[in-house]
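Extended Data, panel c. Modelled sequence:
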Amino acid sequence: MRRMDAGCGWAKVAVDGKRNNGICLLVFLLLKLRSKASADSTSNSSYTVNIMANTTNPNPEPLPADKVERTDADWCTVLSPQQFEVLRKKGTEPPFRNEYWNNHKAGVYRCAACGLLLFKSDSKFDSGTGWPSFSSPVAESNVKLVADNSHGMRRIEVECPRCESHLGHMFDDGPAPSGKRFCMNSASLKFYPSIDTPYTTSKPATDPSK
């Protein structure tokens, strides 16, 4: 009995003066089938990688129903101090000294805390208030309206329905046809030139109000 190295550690061929052609043929066919299966597996893996490489936005589009819940300590790790004050503590940034009040570029605005799509640039208008203002959100379900009676005023607060972060307030003095003005804090938003631009929720490098 002599061992035949077939490259897979299990084939043995009996040799007794004359090669057993039947066994050798069987070993050959089995090795060929195994080689084909390995090649198919490699091909499928490459195909999967190529699909991922061609995906424009690596993050699935978040939905309002995909709730995000974090502790204040967790939020502090992903938000700047100004973002945390506005988004989580319902603060207000100074007018005319914020990032997007005078931004006229085409694109979309997402929640700075969780990435939910909120507004498109074609609904943005110059309200003269010093804060970014929009006549309507991308969809009614993409904003949450809450009665706000703080500071001795009756207003309508706008929250992100996904992470319940404070965005700003809504007023009934906007342009037609909606007649609404969604007065937002720049610190609550992140602007992207396209809806397909990969979004992040990392801290900004600088504080525009400084």
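The chain is about 20% helix and 20% strand. This feature is highlighted in the accompanying rendering.
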